[in-house]
Amino acid sequence: MCDGVPKNGQQYPNQNPQGKHEPYENYGSDCVICGLPRAAMEGGSNLKLPIRAIASAITAVVALGVVGGGYFLFKSKFQSCPVGQQKVADVCVAINPTSTTPNNPAPPGTTAPTNSSGTFRTFAEVPNVPSLQVKYGGSTSFAPLRSLQIVGRITQAHPGYSLVYTEPTAGTKPGSGSGIRMLIDGMLTFAQSSRPLKQDEKSAAQAKNIILEEKAIAFDAIAIYINPQLSIPGLTTSQIKDIFTGKITNWNQVGGPNVPVTPISRDPQDGGTPEFFIEKALANEPFAPSVQPYMRDVTSSIQKVGKTPGGISYATASEVCNQNRIVSTVGISSVAGQPFIAPCTGVSVNQAELSKGAYPLTRQLYIVIKKDSGQDEQAGTAYANMLLSDEGQQIINSVGLIAIR
């Protein structure tokens, strides 16, 4: 838990924002609100790591990766982190030394280098990257891409491009919907969404003379997770539907123990993930009344499932796979009799299987850009192009998402 006040008595000039903030339970190595390291949050104690972090963008951290030994320290830190959180475990990728390619923007009359697919090779090669503070937020499924290490690599390539993760206002839950509303209201430079734009969102934007564009940058898999004390062979998609719509109420109906089922979810009005889950897994049937009260975020959902004997929920695989001390993920299949496909292997996302396209619960992730012919559009387009570059797609794979190209 971090409230912005270092518990070890040290000063952190790179903390942003400085000073006390609303207490937040963090699930990675740095506070997602202000960037304090875990040692500062815990006073150097050996408390158990929490479950999930939505990383705040502290751009000053990039000094670690600028030259020589700083680069190797940056590389080491990146590779020692757990999948789906601030860092990457078991699926680490090498971090290239700082590119010497000119970065921001391409000189007039020239074209930045691209690969054979027409995209860029590195962050540094992406042109027309504006120098400004870039406020972004939205879908919690993007948490693995908000780590200090990844934000640091972007800022190292484009020093004037200052990414700042921005939470919704008090009382509003984070998610795709709230992020898109914040973009329309001028609170964000671009938004991150785990679903396509809705017609009412496009209409709300048009009412303010705003045109929104979505760019797909990755594939994502939804993992089903349960209380670790439960033992079941797997679930079919029809069984998942029946659990969350209230038709299956005891685990002995799906080969488990005689324990009541307790389905848990975030509010479908707030997040793209629960919206997708209702559409894809429930065939647009509503949640059973037993699913409420809704959880604020994935963190609280995982905690609830871990403490509830019959608990079951769902989330982006990269947010769940390394939480096997608290919850267990479940293999799923489209129909009875087919092999169950596990979303995780150990603490890592099972990319070898998920990339084959047979896993039933997959979707695309999007960057939502404001088409204003100004710096907001430039900033959003640049961010999407960086994630679509060779370097960006490699990072997307490394954090447990699935490259789109």
Write structural notes for this entry.
- The protein is 25% helix and 15% strand.
- With 405 residues, it is α/β, with parallel strands linked by helices.
- Mean pLDDT is 81; it is low at 44-111.
- α11 (375-388) crosses α12.
- It has helices at 38-42, 68-79, 148-157, 176-184, 199-206, 237-244, 272-280, 298-307, 317-320, 351-354, 375-388, 390-398; strands at 132-138, 161-165, 190-193, 212-226, 235-236, 262-263, 311-316, 328-330, 332-333, 344-345, 348-349, 362-370, 402-403.
- It folds into three domains: 1-50, no CATH class; 55-218 and 367-403, 3-Layer(aba) Sandwich (D-Maltodextrin-Binding Protein, domain 2); 220-362, Periplasmic binding protein-like II (D-Maltodextrin-Binding Protein, domain 2), CATH 3.40.190.10.
